[in-house]
Each structure stands twice: as C-alpha cells, then as structure tokens.
Amino acid sequence: MPKRVDHQERRREIAEALFRIAAAQGLQAVTLRAVAAEAGISMNLVQYYFPTKEEMLRFAWRRIVELTMEHAGKTIGEAMKSEDERTIVRAYLTSVLPDGERARMLSAVQIAYFAVDVTRGSQDPDQEPLLPHLVHAITELLRAAQEKGAVPARLDPRLEADSLATMSAGLVTAIMVDAYTAERASEIVDYRLDGVFSGAR
C-alpha cells in the first residue's frame, strides 16, 4: 500500500521551515523557494500546499497563534485551579514570556510579522491578533478581584488590563534583545501586580 500522507502535518512542517527563516532573517527572506530548501522538499510540493506566499504566511500565522495558545493554556489552566485572580493574571502575563530556545524562536517570528505590520501601517485583516484576547481575559479577572476587595475600586479594570498586557508585550521584546532575562521579567510582572492587587489601600 502507498504511504498515507498527513497533509495537515506536512503543512505544519512547511510552517516550521518558514519559522526558522523568519526568526533568523525576517519575513522579507521568506519565499516559496527558500522555504522549500529549508524544509528539504521540492518547490512543487510547497506550491501544492500553498500556491502563493501569502497563503503560506497566513497559515504560518495561524499556526503561531495555535502554538502560543497551546503553551499558554497549560500554564493558565494550572493557575486556574487556584481560583485566585492574581495567580491567574500572573499566568496570563508570564506565559507569553520566551523562556527557552523554542519559545524565543516563536517570539522572533511574531516580531517579524509585527515588523511588516508596522511598515504597512496596519495589521493584516487575516491575522487574528492575540492582544485583545489577553486584555479581555485580564479585564474580567480584575473585575472579579475588585468584587472581592483584592483590587482597589478606584482602579479601572480595562485600563489596568491594557497597561499590563502592553507591559508584557514589551517584556517579550526586552528578553529577545537580552535587556532582561525571563526571570527578571517575571520579577517585574510580580512588582506590577503587587501594586494592582493591593486591596483597599
């Protein structure tokens, strides 16, 4: 019998080759030919799965989102067992911080996509943004904590969530350029959360 091909797995392998190129050289270096060479397969095979570079880039972004959610989901899921809002918010913020070579590569690819968005002046409408999901989740957690008295009533949950999410995104970049270690970034997150979860003080 002929070997059965897992087409979705082959698409993911092609995306992994794209990630390696984008992380090292940026999206401008990504072409169908370059990805084929990196993946060790023929140009025709890449085009079978992705007729155009744009289709390949869109799939790769969806794969980045999927991998990010998978990684964060484990950390957040464990934190949710505590039923403590501060612990869960911390998990949301620290789960995006690159803490190993694989995580650093995926973060570099995300930054490569963002660099293109900055040049273009907007995000590709086909790219699902990650930040709004983070902001929404943190906002709801802060509101719940306010009801318990763990977060001061004077604070605006949405503005605090925006501030925390933006800080976390900035820490990712800082780690990638070795301005901070992942450990130091986590300390910064804790310091900031100490100010938010300060009860009625």
Task: Tell me about this structure.
The chain has 201 residues and is an all-alpha fold. 72% of the residues lie in helices and 0% in strands. The chain starts with 6 loop residues before the first helix and ends in a 5-residue tail after the last helix.
Biggest sheet record: none
Poorly predicted regions are: none
Determine Rg (CA atoms, Å): 20 Å
Mean pLDDT: 91
Can you write the helix and strand succession as a string?
HHHHHHHHH
Structural class: mainly alpha
Number of strands: 0
**Share of helix, binned:** over 70%
Percent range for β-strand residues: under 5%
Q: N- to C-terminal separation?
A: 71 Å
Outline type: elongated
Helix count, DSSP H or I runs of 4 or more residues: 9
Give me a quick take on this structure.
By secondary structure, this protein is mainly alpha-helical.
Strand and helix layout:
Blueprint: H1 7-25, H2 32-39, H3 43-49, H4 53-80, H5 85-94, H6 101-120, H7 131-148, H8 157-176, H9 182-196
Helix pairs in contact: 1-2, 1-4, 1-6, 2-3, 4-5, 5-7, 5-9, 7-8, 8-9
Features:
201 residues; mainly alpha
